[in-house]
Amino acid sequence: MTTAADPVIVMKQEVGKAAANRVQSDSIVGLGTGSTTAYAIEYIGERLSQGELSNIVGVPTSFQAEVLAKKYGIPLTTLDAIDHIDVAIDGADEVDPQKNLIKGGGAAHTREKVVDALANEFIVVVDSGKLTDKLGSTFLLPVEVIPMAMTPAINALAKLGGKPELRMGIKKAGPVVTDQGNLVVDVKFDSIDNPAELEKAINNIPGVLENGLFVGVADIVLIGEIIDGKPTV
Ligand code: 5RP
């Protein structure tokens, strides 16, 4: 069982709080997905309920984010009702020195890319374990594929040099299904030398909706670290 003293959880909490503290009143906020952003959503809700923040409206990147935002009292809107997003806060699975990301560990990267890319400022919240010199070194690259195209898409991903595997859910009882009703293929690439090129090549495969490479989207990366035994951002 994990407890609040787990250093990774403490880092996630601190970095989530730091991001929430950057949100200003009268703003439209993209609400990311995952365990780190969940803390940011919680703290935005806390600031709202304490009267520290007002007139905030959120754009959720997933059903999970929507449920959390409702739980913590953040009013929500959709992209049809707004003309901009002031700031988006979202996690990542890997971050390279150029602030390029791999996302999609929570199978939400398609909607995350739409919202995060629209934001005037996209703040990434990660613990220090997510930093890497080269994308793909520790995390598989998630690719959302429409179900009828799964086999040809897997073959095409292998032709691009990857080792694709359909993502299975809990106890491998069935595949993970995204909020859009699609499947996720996780792909191991030995080396992602040109993330921008690979992002485009994968999205060119018929039946692929979106992949988890976020190139040139992030503006700020907040990193949670434990320094001298103390959580630091
Ligand atoms: C979901 C994501 C998440 O932001 C990413 O997986 C990081 O999650 P966590 O903060 O739980 O480590 O991309 O699709």
Please tell me what the overall shape is.
Answer: globular
**Spatial gap, N to C terminus:** 25 Å
The percent range for strand residues is 25-35%
Q: What's the number of extended β-strand segments?
A: 13
Write the H/E string, N to C.
Answer: HEHEHEEEHEEHEEHEEEE
Biggest sheet, open or closed, and with what strands and sense? 6 strands, mixed
Oligomerization status of the protein chains: single chain
Summarize the amount of helix as a percent range. 25-40%
Radius of gyration from the alpha-carbon trace, in angstroms: 18 Å
The overall pLDDT average reads: 95
What keywords describe this structure?
Ribose5P_isomerase_typA_subgr, single chain, 233 residues, 4-stranded antiparallel beta sheet, NagB/RpiA_transferase-like, EC 5.3.1.6, binds ribulose-5-phosphate
Question: What does this protein structure show overall?
Answer:
It comes from Hyella patelloides LEGE 07179. Belongs to the ribose 5-phosphate isomerase family. With 233 residues, the chain is α/β, with parallel strands linked by helices. It contains 6 helices and 13 strands. Strands 2-1-3-6-12-13 form a 6-stranded mixed β-sheet. The protein has a 4-stranded antiparallel β-sheet with strand order 8-9-7-10, covered by helices on one side. A 3-stranded antiparallel β-sheet has the order 4-5-11, with helices on one face. A hairpin with a 2-residue loop joins strand 12 and strand 13. Helix 1 crosses helix 2. It is globular. The model has no long low-confidence stretch (mean pLDDT 95).
